[in-house]
Design goal:
Elements (H helix, E strand, L loop, with lengths): L13 E4 L14 H4 L8 H7 L8 E4 L11 H7 L4 E6 L7 H4 L5 E7 L5 H7 L5 H13 L4 E6 L8 H10 L4 E5 L5 H6 L1 H17 L3 E3 L14 E3 L4 E3 L10 E4 L5 H6 L4 H4 L2 H5 L15
Parallel strand pairs: 1-2, 1-8, 2-3, 3-4, 4-5, 5-6, 6-7
Antiparallel strand pairs: 8-9, 9-10
Helix pairs in contact: 7-9
């Protein structure tokens, strides 16, 4: 194997764990509502059953095709994984009980999906969005000294919002600002790439001046601590990376086996060659990966 980076050989330290496919929103760019025919929670009994088999991971990111905070047992789930560092990914429009959120001291970060800096702009992306709830959550994040990040999906509707989003990130002491493109919009991106590039360069410069880490759409988002991020779907299926919905191989099911055994099996070997990363459309910026089957 000849690569400049071979993170895919290293055992994952973080898993994206989908505890629900329910969501309180229907954002214009979201593909989840088309993929999920019968949204539901993963029963708490099943989560307890999966606990030991997920013990290999140091970090659990609660996210997926649903909004984790709408799970009826969300705060109990935090207690179940009190020995893990939790990253919560949320759309921000569900009220957060910060007393319960911080009760076990295991919240590493809360990542808010923010696509506009005002109620008007957020409602352009999702008409039912509760911007007042987002602002209250952000204020409480400051009060409880919570590490927060912004996830922004760049679409034509919010192209002119980036400066305002930068100022919003500064106001609420965001630690990291991530921006990406929506799935299925490659034609729009290519047609506007020069304007997009200019705006993103300006955003990156402004954020870095404010001491906020920036992660752009052409940077790999599939790693954590220089190792691939694994995915566990609501039915317990384990996938090798966070691009699982685009055809990455399933390597097992946590209801039947623990992750270490999956990692040691032949089912993970093909991923560890790096060939999926080289051909990955979502993270095609990894052009320095050189695949070899030798």
């Amino acid at each position: 194997m000849n690569t400049k980076t071979d993170f895919y050989k290293r055992i994952p330290q973080m898993v994206l764990f989908e505890i629900t496919t329910k969501c309180n929103l229907a954002c214009s760019y979201c593909v989840a509502r088309k993929l999920i025919k019968d949204p539901s929670d993963l029963p708490i009994e099943r989560i307890i059953a999966i606990k030991d088999n997920i013990s290999k991971f140091d970090y659990i990111a609660l996210c997926g095709l649903g909004e984790s905070l709408v799970h009826k047992n969300f705060y109990q789930i935090l207690e179940i994984f009190s020995d893990k560092k939790i990253v919560l990914v949320t759309n921000g429009s569900v009220p957060i009980d910060y007393e319960k959120l911080m009760a076990h001291g295991n919240i590493d970060a809360v990542s808010f999906s923010v696509d506009g800096a005002s109620e008007k702009e957020m409602k352009r992306v999702c008409s039912s969005y509760r911007f007042d709830v987002l602002l209250n959550n952000l204020e409480n994040s400051l009060k409880y000294n919570t590490n927060i990040a912004f996830n922004c999906t760049l679409v034509k509707e919010n192209m002119e919002e980036l400066d305002a989003l930068k100022e919003m990130a500064i106001k609420y002491k965001v630690k990291r600002f991530k921006i990406g493109f929506p799935l299925g919009q490659s034609r729009w991106v290519k047609a506007n790439i020069n304007d997009i590039d200019t705006k993103l360069c300006s955003l990156e410069e402004g954020l870095k001046e404010a001491g906020i880490a920036y992660e752009g759409p052409f940077e790999a988002k599939c790693t954590f601590n220089d190792a691939p991020i694994a995915v566990v779907s609501k039915n317990g299926n384990v996938y090798t990376c966070c691009d699982y919905y685009c055809g990455r191989p399933q390597v097992g099911n946590l209801f039947h086996d623990d992750f270490q055994k999956m990692w040691d099996k032949r089912s993970y070997e093909e991923f560890r060659t790096g060939r999926f990363c080289v051909k990955c459309k979502q993270y095609h910026n990894l052009k320095d990966l050189i695949y070899s089957n030798t």
